[in-house]
Amino acid sequence: MKEEGLCKWHFDPQTGEEEGPGDALGQNFKGEPYAALVRESIQNSLDVPISKDVPVKVSYSFGFLDSSVFENLFKIKDHIRGCKDYWKSKPDIVKKYDAKLKLLDEDFSRWMPYIKISDSNTQGMAYHPNDNNCPFYAFVRASKISVKGGSYQGGTYGFGKAAYFQVSPINTLLVSTMTEDGKVFFEGKSSLCTHLYEGQKKTTVGYYDNNEGVQPIEDIEKIPSSFRRTEPGTDFYILGFKPTNMEKAIEIMMAEVFRSFHPAILEGMLEVEIRPAADKAIIISKDTIEKQINKFFPEEDDTSGQFRTLNPRPYYDALIHKGEGKGYSVIHGHKDHLGDVTLYVKKVKGATDKIVYMRRPRMVVYSQKTGSSIGFYGVFICDDPNGDPLLSLLENSSHSKWDPSFYRDDITNDCIEDGVIAMKELKEFRDECIKELAGDNPADELNIPGLEDLLYIPDKLIDDDDEQQPSTPLGKPTGNLGPENGALTTTAQEIKEDSLNLKSPRGTIVVEGNGKPKNIDEGKNKIMGGHTGGHGGGGHNIGPGGEIHTADIEDDNGKHHYPMNVPIRVFAQVEHGTVYHIVLIHSNRVVNNGKMEFVVCGEQYDMPIDIAETSNGKAKKNTILNMSFGNEVVRVKIRFADNMPHTVQTKLFYEE
Questions:
Q1: Which residue range is the domain that position 652 belongs to?
Q2: Based on the number of CB atoms within 10 Å of its own CB, is 201 exposed (0-12), middle (13-18) or buried (19 or more)?
Q3: For the residues of 466-512, what is the DSSP string, one character each?
Q4: Which residue, of 392, 490, 590, 644, has the fewest CB within 10 Å?
């Protein structure tokens, strides 16, 4: 018998609601799929250490599966073909699955490439039949469910598994695990769409095992030998992993390790191995990281505008010095809800007054400028047994932001008070630290209600380009809150609007005569306009496929689409638990066939998210087509598929 044994694909008959290929959750990770994979996979491993005395080890390696050995596994192609056949009247779906079939027929016909993520010093993922409160069930056999061991956990939503599927062009992976007590479990999972197979309508999700798809394999002798574990931990095989530029993909993965996990590595909690080839390994550990991070990020200052281009060097320096040496300090605090909190500081002339935030797992969640002009970099850590789990409840699904809006009452949809108070305490501690770092200032204080809204600008609203960074001419914030409206106070005596370097609220794109946009960055990044101005790229963006960006306008019956350079405003509002975005367009012409593209600004990455509903025109992916409106202020109401509030970039075109 071949190594594969009796393993084969099992998709249940489709009896309920049919599903297309859309994946709203996965779109949270589309912007930078390889970076997102690193963040999600390492965080999952850090959640479940066996021993805290030795580091959790996470390894990334690459390999191939032989179709002559795994014939049944390769029959996933028949199910993918069934997706195309069932949705044959939908050109966009046919195109999607045609691309997958082409890969399987041409590139993967004999050898299936994969990336293997393997961890050790971890608890593995236990499975118990009919128990939906075990880790293997949550990851492989459920959606939007997360179950992890231990009292401190990085993930809470269970949405992170979508990051694994995002880097598989055939949406398929294999999971093999061993628990601390030596029990083993193995199963494959493929997430497609409602489809036809051998004349029957089948469900979206299928399982690769020898148990009729009912449960994973538990007998180690029946697990294909290539996938057997010999120590506690878990292996993930993401099938079809074949980036167009492997070196660049590895570079992105390494940068994400340094950017997000240098605190965990520095404290000996984590060790990462990346194997570009069987005979070559890059080890990032407590003993090697200093030399590696200095070489990878030679600049000592962080001038980035987004987390995806953040330079971790100054924050790493703040952590390794721990307040010792000129310019370094540590500020401790205690709050009723957050408990013990700490800020590690590096003061240096010209610094951008930015703080990175993290909890107990020592993964950087996000970075944010304070709006002050002291000249420092800070690392905020809350690993308090009360504050850490509370902050985890305020964390979004991609673990890139804390906000009370993510922690709501299921019935009333109101923000839960503990979360609101926790964020107020965090801001209080931040302001106390700014006051301490600024020192005594004898200048008179000018109380300006609403000033904090001008100074406290999230990175996601700021371009990466240095010349477009807002200046800070408003004086030095004192850290004091005024008696009215809780306004932040400053030593400035006057404010000049032109000093704020405000960006134009107009979105533009360069269009050549043939109707196609001119890429002014030699194809490296797509041109991005946006509400409140452009939102520059700067990070690498290597996608798993060759999907054409919707800004690539083609000729249409001799007509072209040209940009409308008009003011656009977007804001979110909640109606009965549903999040809508209101788009206000200050139109300067009558438009009969307009189109508008939306790109969501993330703390880490910008990404397109499908539009589920629009009050004007027709929604297609992240674009509204066939828009009509007059020379007036136009109000368009849209709903994104993920039902979350977003900061949004827009591009608006009219036909001529």
A1: 504-656
A2: middle
A3: GGGSPP--S--EEEEEPSSTT-EEES-S---GGGG-PPPSB----B-
A4: 590
Report d(CA 79, CA 11) in Å as an integer.
9
Supply the pLDDT for residue 11.
Answer: 97
With a CB cutoff of 8 Å and minimum separation 6, the contacts of 159 are 25, 28, 144, 397, 398
From 266, 287, 307, give the residue that closes a domain. 266
Number of separate domains in the chain: 3
Q: What is the pLDDT of residue 359?
A: 95
Q: Is residue 464 part of a domain?
A: yes
424, 449: one domain: yes
478 and 345 in a common domain: yes
DSSP 313-364: HHHHHHHHHTT-STTEEEEEEEETTTEEEEEEEEE-TT---EEEEEETT--E
472 and 528 together in one domain: no
Give CA 383 to chain center in angstroms: 23
Residues 116 and 180 in one domain: yes
280: in domain: no
- The contacts of residue 568 (CB under 8 Å, 6+ apart) are 505, 506, 507, 531, 583, 584, 585, 586, 650, 652
0.90 surpassed by pTM = no
Residues 335 and 451 in one domain: yes
Structure tokens at 52: 């805290």
Q: Among the listed ranges 144-153, 330-339, 507-516, 556-565, which one has the minimum average pLDDT value?
A: 507-516
In one-letter notation, the amino acid at residue 649 is: Q
Cα 325–chain centre separation: 36
- Give, rounded to a whole angstrom, the gap between the first and last alpha carbons of the chain: 66
Higher pLDDT, 401 or 242: 401
Q: Are residues 514 and 490 in the same domain?
A: no
User: What are the distances in angstroms from CA 460 to CA 325, 337, 600?
Assistant: 33, 27, 10
Query: Same domain for 144 and 207?
Result: yes
Locate the DSSP E strands across 210-279.
233-239, 270-277
**Do 149 and 163 meet the contact criterion of CB atoms below 8 Å apart?**
no
CA distance 71 to 54: 40
Q: Residue 89's domain is classified under what CATH number? A: 3.30.565
14 lies in some domain:
no
Assigned token pair, 269? 């909690």
